[in-house]
Amino acid sequence: MVGYGHCMGMGWWWLILIILLIILFYFLKEKQKSKTSSAQEILDTLYAKGEIDKKEYEERSDNLKKQ
Question: Taking all residues of the chain, what is their mean pLDDT, rounded to a whole number?
């Protein structure tokens, strides 16, 4: 009986660990998306101000999308 209870406890720890890893992975992906968005916004602003031409804008925009 004692061994059965111990195994169940270990099962919960693995489940909690897996859930925490999934949550961590989700937040890291969301953080990466926000970095790309802010970089794209900066690029849009540079293009709107006329500081870069269309060709450079498209090249940089494509590079951001690949990351």
Answer: 81
47: which residues sit within 8 A by CB, 6+ positions away?
54, 57
Query: What burial class does residue 65 get, using C-beta atoms within 10 Å of its C-beta: 0-12 exposed, 13-18 middle, 19+ buried?
Result: exposed
Helix (H) or strand (E) run with residue 44 in it? helix 2-49
The reported pTM is 0.45
Q: For residue 13, give both structure tokens.
A: 């720890």
- Structurally, the chain folds into a number of domains equal to 1
44 and 58 Cβ atoms separated by less than 8 Å = no
Whole-angstrom distance, CA of residue 59 vs CA of residue 13: 48
Domain containing residue 43: 2-66
Other C-beta atoms closer than 10 Å to the C-beta of 47 total: 17
